[in-house]
Amino acid sequence: MYKCIDSGIDFEKFDNTPFKFSHKILNHKALSIESLSKALPRMPKGHVKYSKGFDDIGGDFDNAETTHKNNLTLKETIENIKTSNSYITVNRAEVDPSFKELYDDLIEDAERMMKLKGVGTKALVPKIFLFIASPGAFTPFHLDRHTTFLFQMRGSKQVAVFPQFNPKVVEPTQRECYADYGGLDLTWSEEMDQYAYKFDFAPGEGIHIPFISGHYVKNGTEDVSISMSIIFRTKQSQTWLDAMGFNNRLRKHFAKLGIRLKAIGTKGSLDRLKAFLFPVVDKLTELRKS
User: In whole angstroms, what is the distance from residue 27 CA to residue 67 CA?
Assistant: First the structure.
């Protein structure tokens, strides 16, 4: 029995195929706009970012706070969120005591599903993210370096999620560079939309977004959107991430030898070998920089 997620989920889809589910935390006291208006200002500096809302899918979401300033204070942004065309993101909301119990319950649910799928027993680097958006705002196309469970609390939205390793959505070299923090620019084109799984998303519903699956969000126009996600890595996704780092750091060196590295996600045994060797590659990279 899950504490936050309704039972009946097909765990075989976990970290493979996006799916929608129902959740049990719709009326959680920590997620009301009244509670958030108190919790956000007291969070440590850097945990809360806010910006002008995006109006297209191809924007630079990672640098929104500097490239899309809304010229308001955080207090003004919260108070006027319904009319100010703004977007608020909260990284690691669990640092506030109001989220402690919810955080523990979410991790317990995540680890239960991981065990059923056989991809590990402990959620690695888990975090809670919050998203508060004005009506009609977009979350541009981007990738997460984590596995995600996204919960809708208020307002509606449409969420488009793309297959995690489809080269027609994001080329392997670009995906591996992005995953390794080697470059944050992702290419968006309307042609990519044909590959998306699209979900209409309402309060009380959740969506599972597999590791490194591209996605974007269109918030509904009728109300403020409040959503929350628990993000984490599994033993398997950490292997994928480290293997992507191996490819990104050594691709040019292997190319000089006439060897083309195989994309991550195509051969499990090779991914595991690359992940095993990545700490050595990472150390050598640091030594070259020093």
Answer: 34
CB neighbours of 34 closer than 8 A, spacing ≥ 6? Answer: none
Phi, psi of 215 (to 5 degrees): -160, 160
Q: Write out pLDDT tens, residues 225-267.
A: 999 999 999 999 999 999 999 999 999 999 999 999 999 998 8
Q: Of 95, 98, 128, 126, which Cα lies nearest the Cα of 111?
A: 126
In sequence order, what are the beta bridge partners of 86? 52
DSSP-derived secondary structure letter, 24: S
Q: In sequence order, which ranges of 118-234 are alpha helices (DSSP H)?
A: 172-179
Alpha carbon 20 to its chain centroid, in Å, reads 16
- Token pair of 8 as six digits: 């009946």
From residue 131, alpha-carbon distances to 40, 124, 268, 272 in Å are 12, 22, 34, 34
Query: Is the pTM of the predicted complex or chain greater than 0.85?
Result: yes
pLDDT per position as a tens digit, 208-220: 999 999 999 998 8
Domain definitions of the chain by residue range: 11-233, 238-289
- CATH classification for the domain delimited by 11-233, as one of 2.170.130.10, 2.40.37.20, 2.60.120.10, 3.20.20.370: 2.60.120.10
* 3-class DSSP state of 149: strand
